[in-house]
Design goal:
This protein is an alpha+beta fold. The chain folds into 5 domains: 2-201, Hypothetical protein af1432 (Orthogonal Bundle); 210-350, Beta Polymerase, domain 2 (2-Layer Sandwich), CATH 3.30.460; 353-374 and 388-465, Ubiquitin-like (UB roll), CATH 3.10.20; 485-646, no CATH class; 654-725, 2-Layer Sandwich (Alpha-Beta Plaits), CATH 3.30.70.600. It has 32 helices and 18 strands. It has a 5-stranded mixed β-sheet with strand order 1-2-5-4-3. The chain has a 4-stranded mixed β-sheet with strand order 11-13-12-14. A 4-stranded antiparallel β-sheet has the order 16-17-15-18, with helices on one face. A hairpin with a 2-residue loop joins strand 8 and strand 9. Helix 1 packs parallel to helix 3, helix 2 packs parallel to helix 4 (75-82) and helix 23 (491-506) packs across helix 25.
């Protein structure tokens, strides 16, 4: 058929059509005929359009269709890719596409069509478009893979656009499309797009690493072949039928380099292999052999066969060191390999446990969309911005998978509690939860759950939600369900629940409501600007005031002098920084040195509320015995902080941070470092040069400010590894 293709408007369009038809040989003749028709239809529709490079515009959507043909996708997806910009950019209507190519194609094209409104700003339009793509993907995942192929082709041809636009497109892609693709299990296409993002974000850094990879290409090939031979011999010796494949691990190397997780020369010694075996027993046999031979510790073993990753990907991954090389071996079956390529699109080919994990991700995203759904005829652009902000938080949060006793998977953010799990199962479980069994052991509802755990929730039909739960649940779903339950109560019931919650919180200090004096109540009502204590109880049950903070306000006077001392020295005023914590004594933990922008929690200690990074190791024992003493905190917005800074007589808010550079700085380099950091308004307290590294104590405004300083230093010093130390 390719010899008799109709001539289109330009030789480049003819070439694009020819390449596409060579790629869709797996489709039947009638389907290929429809694709030829779509090329001609799209060519006429886009006849006046040109790309920035000057090429006929239709070459782009035809190239997108060719990318998708590489995944052997169906006729509807290929045609929708060819026509994906027609409704947005030309006179073609949805109805015309539906009449000519069917409802499915029209729906897919609509799914990737941007929402634009001249009455809304750029951020609102972008959020509404993301929201639409998300909603359409949840109805038909093929929408996402069309959008990803579109983005892949655009990212590979950005040379014709100005540098700022290149960077903005790359950042948007890295922020939204790449994590969304990974959550949907579309890792193959996400890998290619991610590498292109780094190229367009910072071409100097990208080229430096690319040049290094080329310089060491022959040596790396030699090493790869040697490791490949060895692994093949191991398979033969163990009597395992399967094959070893060298993986292109450039995306991991670029990611580690750009995120400052390794030095160039160390990253060049990382190699990756995939071993496809007949069954899970064979996977376990090979893993057991390699673990014994290389004495691989648990931190370098990931069993995602039994515990699939978010996105449903299953494999058994080992990392070991051999002759100063780091070898990553991914062991999986053919079924797992097939499922990993297309994720949610090929979900019917995945195992039951993998499908359950994919469904868990889909449920979470559906919950996000359902909270503030967009009416396609009159979209709520403001609601879209709110939903997409939540989606971004969700996409970029570390996720874990926990299982119910029935084997159903639930996806939760890292740091989630047993109560979050209960609400993930449903409000009928969460609202009556009284305890949990985690991997067969009794646990409190505030206990933090870990990846792969089996969680069983104990319920009591007479039990009810408690206001203090709002202090430790992590997920929006749990928080909203608890608030919804309290909202429906009468004023008298709200007061009663708030009073009970405060009484329970007082038990942390071995006290109860009867111990509070008239002076205490006056202190509390004046602090909140309320006429009487019943209004205070209502605030507690409405979620605007945590009972834990009320108690902290009452019983942490002994640190007032210390706080005042720090403030007078121009140090941080914590109450200004933490949302809903005005008037509560707060201090920052010295064990983990949190700074503005870090994910944080608060520990209700005898000395007031102490702010920790949410991953602080010193909280592990506290959470085990008294999980309710650790509450979720969040920073006030940047805008609020800037206003506080403007109002402060003593100057701007500052935090100490400690950086470890993987090189010993010379005197000249120290001067350069101090100069460049001060240009960014980063203070340098001390520089401690040791035999093979350097510790720099800096003073910064925020996590972003510190990241800016790290980027500057890496570029200045030839890209050494720089890590933030949480403990000296």
């Amino acid at each position: 058929m390719s010899q008799n293709l109709p001539k289109l408007s330009h030789h480049l369009v003819d070439e694009a059509q020819y390449n596409l038809l060579r790629s869709v040989g797996y489709l039947c003749a009638a389907e290929r005929h429809d694709i030829i028709d779509a090329c001609a239809f799209g060519d006429v529709a886009h006849i006046k359009d040109r790309r920035k490079s000057g090429e006929p515009y239709i070459t782009h959507p035809i190239a997108v269709a060719e990318i998708l043909a590489g995944f052997r996708l169906d006729r509807d997806t290929i045609i929708a890719a060819i026509l994906h910009d027609t409704v947005e950019d030309t006179e073609v209507s949805d109805e015309q596409i539906e009449q000519r190519y069917g409802k499915v194609v029209a729906r897919l094209v609509d799914g990737v069509t941007k929402l634009k409104s001249s009455t809304h700003n750029k951020q609102q339009n972008k959020a509404a478009t993301f929201h639409k793509i998300l909603t359409a993907t949840l109805n038909d995942p093929r929408v996402l893979i069309i959008k990803l192929a579109d983005r892949l082709h655009n990212m590979s041809t950005l040379d014709a656009v100005r540098p700022e636009k290149q960077r903005a497109t790359a950042q948007e892609t890295l922020d939204f499309y790449v994590p969304f693709a990974r959550l949907m299990g579309l890792n193959d296409i996400a890998d290619y797009i991610e590498v292109l993002c780094y190229r367009n974000l910072n071409s100097d850094m990208y080229n430096k690493l690319s040049d290094k990879l080329l310089q060491h290409g022959l040596g790396r090939n030699f090493q790869r072949e040697a490791i490949h031979r060895y692994l093949t011999i191991v398979l033969n010796n163990l009597g395992l039928g399967g094959h070893v494949k060298v993986l292109d691990n450039r995306v991991v190397i670029y990611r580690q380099f750009f995120r400052n997780r390794g030095e160039i020369n160390a990253l060049l010694r990382h190699y990756a292999f995939e071993i496809v075996l007949d069954n899970i027993e064979a996977c376990d046999k090979l893993a057991y052999y390699l673990i014994k031979k290389y004495q691989i510790d648990d931190s370098h073993i990931e069993d995602n066969i039994r515990r699939p990753l978010p996105g449903g990907n299953q494999s058994l991954t080992l990392i070991y060191e051999r002759d100063n090389d780091f070898v990553k071996v991914t062991i999986l079956t053919k079924q797992m390999q097939n499922a990993a390529r297309l994720g949610v699109i090929g979900a019917e080919h995945a195992s039951d446990v993998s499908q359950s994990v994919i469904q868990a991700s889909l449920r979470n995203m559906k919950d996000l969309v359902d909270e503030e759904s967009l009416d396609e005829n009159s979209p709520d652009f403001t609601a879209a911005v709110s939903t997409i902000n939540e989606l971004m938080d969700y996409l970029h949060s570390s996720k874990i998978i926990c299982y119910s006793p029935q084997g159903r998977a639930y996806e939760l953010p890292q740091g989630a509690t047993a109560l979050d799990f209960a609400y993930a199962v449903g409000p009928m479980v969460g609202n009556v939860a009284v305890g949990a069994n985690i991997d067969g052991k009794k646990a409190k509802l505030g206990t933090v759950v870990k990846n792969g755990q089996l969680v069983e929730i104990e319920v009591n039909s007479h039990s009810e939600p408690k206001a203090e739960w709002l202090g430790f649940v992590v997920t929006n779903k749990a928080r909203e369900e608890i608030l919804r339950w309290f909202k429906d109560l009468s004023a008298a019931d709200k007061q009663h629940h708030g009073q009970q919650a405060l009484d329970r919180a007082l038990k942390t200090y071995q006290k109860n409501l009867d111990d509070l004096t008239d002076s205490d109540w006056q202190n509390l009502t004046e602090w909140r600007g309320l006429p009487e204590k019943s209004a205070l109880f209502e605030q507690i049950s409405s979620g605007t005031l945590l009972p834990q903070l009320v108690v902290s306000r009452l019983f942490s006077d002994e640190v007032s002098n210390l706080q005042a001392q720090r403030h007078n020295n121009g140090m941080v005023q914590p109450q200004q920084l933490i949302a809903n914590a005005a008037g509560v004594e707060i201090d920052f933990a010295n064990c983990c040195h949190p700074i503005y922008g870090d994910p944080i929690v608060g520990h209700l200690s005898r000395h007031g509320l102490v702010v920790h990074r949410h991953k602080c190791f010193s909280l592990d024992d506290i959470r085990k015995d008294n999980p309710y003493q650790v509450i979720q905190l969040r920073w006030r917005s940047d805008k609020a902080i800037k206003q506080s800074e403007a109002d402060e007589q003593s100057g701007k808010i500052r935090f100490p941070a400690y950086l470890k550079l993987s090189i010993a700085l010379s005197d000249e380099q120290i001067s350069e470092v101090i100069y460049h950091l001060r240009q960014l308004n980063i203070g340098v307290e001390t520089v401690d040069v040791r035999s093979s590294d350097t510790i720099v104590h800096v003073i910064v405004r925020s996590r972003d400010h510190l990241a800016q300083g790290i980027r500057e230093l890496r570029s200045l010093l030839g890209f050494p590894n720089i890590v933030r130390l949480y403990q000296l």
